[in-house]
Amino acid sequence: MAKKIRVLMVDDEEQFRATTSKLLQKRGYETTIAGSGEEAIGILKEKPQDVVVLDIKMPGIDGHDALSRIKEIRPETQVIMLTGHGTPDSAKESLIRNAFDYLSKPCPMDILCAKINDAYAAMHRDEPRDEKKARDIMIHIGDYTTVTVDNTVREAMKKLMNSFRSLVSSSRIMETGHRSLLVFDQNKELVGVLSILDLIRAVRPSYLSAPKPSMADSMQYSSMFWSGLFTSQTKGIADKKVGDIMSESPPGVDEDSNLMEVADLLCRDKLRQVVVTSKGRVIGVVREQEIFFEMANIIM
Fold it and tell me: Beta strands of 74-213 (E only): which ranges?
C-alpha cells in the first residue's frame, strides 16, 4: 500500500476496538482508536482521517449523531457503520446521514478491509455516488407483455411473438424481446411468469419428469423413437391454460432499490428478471438486459 489509509476505529468496547485496530495495522492501515463519539470528534478536529469505522450504540452521543457531526467537521471523510445491533431502520438512518456503508458484527476482516478500501477510493473519485435506481431502468408494466392465468398457450405465444416483431433498434436504442410474459389473475395480482423455457418444459413428455419405480431406476428412453413427438406435443399444449404451465412469479424489489441490489439478486437466485414494486404494487420489470445496457452506458 503506497500510502497508508488512515482509519479511526470508534467503539465503546475496549477489547474489540484494540483487537480490530491491531488487525488493521497488520493489514497496512494507520489506525487510531476512540472509545466514544465525543472522543472521535475531538480527534478529527485535530487530525484528519480517511475512513471512520463507527459503532452505533455507545454512551454519550450515539453513532448516528456522531456521524452527522463527523460529516459537518470533515465532509470528505468516509464513515462505515459497524454495529452489533443492526436494523433496517438504523441502516436507513445511516444512509440518510451520508454513511458510506453499514456492516453488522461479527464482520470478517477481509470484508471490513475491502469496504475501507472502497471508502478510500470514493474519496478520490470526482463522480458522485448517486446512480440510477431500479425505477430508472425498468420496463414499465404498461409496456411489458402480460397475460392472465386463463389465457391459452396459443394466445400467450402470439403475444410473445409480437414482442419480438415490434423491436426497435438504432444506434441509440437497444431492445430485445421479452422472452417471458407476466401472468396475472382475475384480481390483477401478479401470480407467475410464463417464459420460453416454461413452454419448452411443457412440450417434454410427462413421463420424462415422472419419478421412476425403484425397480426401474436404470430405465432409459431411446430418443430414436421420438421422431414426430415434438410436433405432436407442441400441438397438444396449444389450448392449455397459461396457469397450468407457468412458473412462480419472480421476486420483487422496491422502486428505490439501487442497481447493485438488483444485480446481486439476479446472480444470487440465478434469475433473468425481477419485478419492481411501489407500495406493494407491481409497476415494472428489470431484466438482465437492462442491467447489461446500464453497464454498457457506464463503460462506453
Answer: 78-83, 101-104, 139-140, 146-148, 180-184, 190-195
